[in-house]
Design brief:
By secondary structure, this protein is mostly helical. The chain has a domain of 104 residues. It starts with a helix and ends in a 5-residue tail after the last helix. The N terminus is likely disordered.
Length: 201
């Protein structure tokens, strides 16, 4: 007994407490680990729920946005196509306007040339009108002289008419006298023929 006591190691209060506290600490660590795992599991579960709710809400909002965005995109495409068509038509119209403006410019050049020739012609007409004015003045003088000459001719014609009237009157009397002479000669011719019978020649 004495040897056994002598061979047993002495028990100190610190070593006993350590042996008694070691299993308790191990259990506490396991509890903490289990609590942490449960908390982590709960956290992951909550996060999964939150993520699923977020996905569902995002999907619902995406569907709502699809109802808005797709028609908007379609309207934008239609408006873009219509805008392109308008730009094409505007470009075509501008091209036609440019062509017409070129034709108008050519016509304006021709009109300017025609106006120049018309101006020259008007100057020629003006000069001719001046000449015609001088000619008309000379013609008016000549017409006045002709009127004066015609007046003299008219007076001479009146005198001639009077002379012709007097000649007609004289010729009438001469015809009457000639007829009288003819009757007288006929009256004389009878005795002359009678006397010719007695003449020897």
């Amino acid at each position: 007994m004495a040897d056994e006591r002598g061979t047993r190691p002495p028990i100190t209060p610190d070593s006993g407490e350590e042996n008694a506290e070691a299993p308790g600490e191990h259990v506490a660590e396991e509890v903490v680990e289990e609590a942490a795992k449960e908390a982590e599991h709960l956290l992951f579960t909550d996060m999964a729920q939150y993520m699923s709710q977020f996905a569902r809400s995002f999907e619902a909002s995406a569907r709502r946005w699809e109802l808005v965005v797709y028609p908007t995109m379609l309207a934008f495409v239609v408006l873009a196509a219509y805008g392109f068509f308008l730009i094409y038509k505007l470009t075509n119209d501008i091209g036609q306007i440019v062509g017409q403006m070129e034709a108008i410019s050519v016509s304006m050049v021709n009109i300017n040339k025609n106006f120049s020739s018309t101006t020259n012609n008007m100057n020629t007409v003006a000069r001719n009108m001046v000449k015609m004015t001088s000619y008309m003045g000379q013609m008016s003088k000549d017409i006045k002289e002709q009127n004066a000459a015609m007046g003299a001719i008219v007076s001479n014609m009146r005198d001639m008419n009077q002379s012709i009237d007097s000649m007609s009157y004289t010729m009438y009397h001469m015809r009457y006298d000639t007829q009288t002479m003819g009757r007288n000669i006929e009256n004389v011719s009878g005795p002359m023929r009678f006397m010719n019978n007695f003449m020897p020649w």
